[in-house]
Amino acid sequence: MLEIKNLNAGIEDKDILKGIDLKVNAGEVHAIMGPNGSGKSTLSSVVAGKEEYEVTGGDILFENESILELDAEERAHKGVFLSFQYPVEIPGVSVTNFIKTAINETRKAKGLEDMPASDMLKMIREKSELLEIDRKFLSRSLNEGFSGGEKKRNEIFQMAMLEPKLAILDETDSGLDIDALRIVSNGVNKLRSKDNAVIVITHYQRLLEYIVPDFVHVLVDGKIVKSGGKELALELEEKGYDWVKAELTA
Amino acid sequence: MSLKDKLLSSYLTFQENTDLDNSIHDIKDEAIKIFEEHGFPTRKDENWKYTSLNSLTKPDYSLVSHADDAIEFKDVKKYFLNDIDTYKIVFIDGVYSSYLSETTHDGVDVCLLSSALTKPKFKQVIDVYFNKIAKKESLTALNTAFAKEGAYIYVPKSRAVNKPIQIVHFSTGNEANLMLQPRNLIVAEENAEVQVIERHQSLNSNAVFTNSVTEIYAGKHARVDYYKIQNDKENASLIDNTHIDQQESSEVSVHTFSFGGKLTRNNLNFYQNGEHNNSILKGVTIIEDKQHVDHNTLVHHKQPNCESHQDYKGIFDDKSTGVFNGKVVVDAIAQKINAYQSNNNILISDKASINSKPQLEIFADDVRCSHGCTIGQLDEDALFYMRSRGIGIKEGRALLMYAFANNVLESVKIPQLKARITNLIADKLGVNIGFDL
């Protein structure tokens, strides 16, 4: 589904990603772990199409086609979804109106008619129940005054509504208490299928107890320095990132 | 001959043809003297530094329309709010149109200023309120001298007008250049309530210059909501002078939606003459091309324990220009005042500009006054967030701009009007954002 080949990217002359290779197949869950500043969020932004980052080398293939030249919205239309580490507050646009616009814009790009209002309402009801979201919450301005947990739940709610093929969850566990973590993870797990894939970007192993990955990759200084199964996350938790770094310099 | 000279020389003929009480003639004579002395303001006046009336005062204006000005309702229906029942006071080229209007004298008076100025039964109210609230400055005085017609709304004690009132001024363009000077008087006595929607609309591209004056009196505990829709054609210019006298515990809101017109200047003056007043001043400006919108506000806190809330948002494209000059005066006696003022602007084009100037003159020591002003571009992070969810750049921008303006709409109390304004905004932004509101 996703194939990243020798990806080099940076911002304003600063190299951040220095040759990333990653292959994610449908049905898989990959975790990317790494210390602060290793390039985790840059990687997710570059895949989602944030224009501030300049790709200086390599390629990103989605379903065997390069998406480097595509705008962020075109990538979204193809089925790429990024759950933000810091979701942006948009006062004046309700959660419902935002998600309706997003869904219908995506449908328009595919040559489809707007989703009938009754289907939309039904879907909103189902998915908000899945994430234990109160109906009142949906009429509030997007992310404005939301707690950290509400913001993240709202991200996963949007993911549930948009049904992406590839979901990248950037530090979705940060700022979550244990209950919110359970709800969010539960939501993600229910959305997993053999047809879609998830990349979980996280600093800590904690989230991976709930969303169990098939593969774990360790990102240090813009490179994937170690890959393995889910047990690698536990090892990292126990020994810390310095262990990987030490191994590298050894 | 300059426009000023033309107006001065037309004044006598104008008065001779007007059948008015002597006291009104005296008011008008006094007013024309003020205009004669001061003339049209120039950019040398501190209050007019960023708005020049030069191009406006050049054409040779007709002061009355000579042609047959009949228009069909079906041709102008779209300029009315039609999905709710309203009273309507409609003027065509400054002349009252009875067939487009719906007035009343049932418990409240919703009718014509010309009737009120000439008929004895209104004399008592006219003597107390007409030209008493208005500032004695040049443009208002010019209007006072020439004004014959406009809306007269009188709401007696503890009465509420049962539906909103639309005041609509059409100009047909039958004259190449037309100058109009409508005059409105709105009196809400103690505990009375009224909602007014005002619109100026030209029907073709000929030049029209409107110098409008509205006086609003809000008695004790009265509530007045006034909405101005300024979405006129490219050669229509408007100077709106609104003067508001608030008595104890009254609440007055003025919302100004400026979406079009060549030059629009809003002189909005609130005088808080009683305690526990609340004054609400809100505006959304969305303009393009070479359009110019200037908001000049004054809130004069003359009594303690009052509030004022000013919130103006502007979106400027192309070479359009905006001005916000918001003055708050707090007299020494006016303790415990909460005065808020905010002016936020988005410049879409490099060539658009906004001059924003808050002015606070505070003579009391126990007050809370805040003011804030921002000028910026659209939030790129927010735009990326939306694009990453599949919302294209054009729709994303529209959504952000809509969101930016939205909190000003929240205080609009007439849902159908709110929906109409939302549609106008979507229309201005060139996108159908398809919200249900």
TrEMBL record, chain A:
GO terms for molecular function: ATP binding; ATP hydrolysis activity. Keywords: ATP-binding, Nucleotide-binding. It comes from the Bacteria. Pfam families: ABC_tran (PF00005). Residues 2-246 form the ABC transporter domain. CDD domains: ABC_FeS_Assembly. Gene3D superfamilies: P-loop containing nucleotide triphosphate hydrolases. The keyword ATP-binding applies. Belongs to the ABC transporter superfamily. Ycf16 family. This is Fe-S cluster assembly ATP-binding protein. It comes from Leeuwenhoekiella aestuarii.
From TrEMBL, chain B:
InterPro entries: Fe-S_cluster_assembly_SufBD (IPR055346), SUF_FeS_clus_asmbl_SufBD_core (IPR000825), SUF_FeS_clus_asmbl_SufBD_sf (IPR037284), SUF_FeS_clus_asmbl_SufD (IPR011542), SufBD_N (IPR045595). Residues 22-167 form the SUF system FeS cluster assembly SufBD N-terminal domain. It comes from the Bacteria. Residues 174-404 form the SUF system FeS cluster assembly SufBD core domain. GO terms for biological process: iron-sulfur cluster assembly. It holds the Pfam family SUFBD_core. NCBIfam families: sufD. PANTHER family: PROTEIN ABCI7, CHLOROPLASTIC (PTHR43575:SF1). Belongs to the iron-sulfur cluster assembly SufBD family. This is Iron-regulated ABC transporter permease protein SufD.
